[in-house]
Amino acid sequence: MAKVLVVGANGQVAKFLTSKLKEKGHDPVAMIRKEEQAAQFKEQGIETVLADLEKDFSHAFENVDTVVFAAGSGPHTGPDKTIIIDQEGAIETIDNTLDRGIKNFVMLSGLPVDGPKGTDDKMKPYFYAKHRADQYLKNTDLNYTILRPGLLTDDEETGKVQMVEHSDASSDATNGEVPRQDVAEVLAQIVDRNKLEGRIYYLIGGDTDIKDAL
């Protein structure tokens, strides 16, 4: 059983993730910004820690085995907030992980983030921030996995996905939708099965069982 800090736990994917980690016998810690967000986790017996990515949040990493960064500034914020949360917040999370001697890190990223060129102007800050955070993680000695899902939907969980490594990715693998619950299950299985081998995966909906896709 691992103690898993989920950064950005009040996000839609992260809520599913904390529940799934609990179901798999792990000890998730939901990092939240507001006290009123705690009840939904405590009802499930999930520990919470109050911390803010825009302030000192190093206390959240106490006795943690694995860190999952699932935070995001959201679609209704400006470019400044995107850089603060999606880039600098992620980088500081990585630094705190290293400072605490924690070895395992999972990054929930996005598609496409190999640079902002050719993307919609409105989305460029988001892709830029995610790209910088991913690159920063790749240059550490952490045991990591970066997951880059396609367009997130609220469709029912299917348990089936198309998942390919960055080095094998085609345009088809980087253009598609995937239910949030399936993304959460992939993240949970990455943690549960210790699939932390310094790899980047693209994820969209597909026909392969998640347990076989990993």
From TrEMBL:
Q: Which domain of life is it from?
A: Bacteria
CDD domains per the record?
SDR_a5
**Residue stretches making up the NAD(P)-binding domain:** 8-192
Task: Output the Pfam families linked to this UniProt entry.
Answer: NAD_binding_10
Tell me which InterPro entries the record gives.
NAD(P)-bd_dom (IPR016040), NAD(P)-bd_dom_sf (IPR036291)
Q: What is this protein called?
A: NAD-dependent dehydratase
Q: Which organism is it from?
A: Salinicoccus halodurans
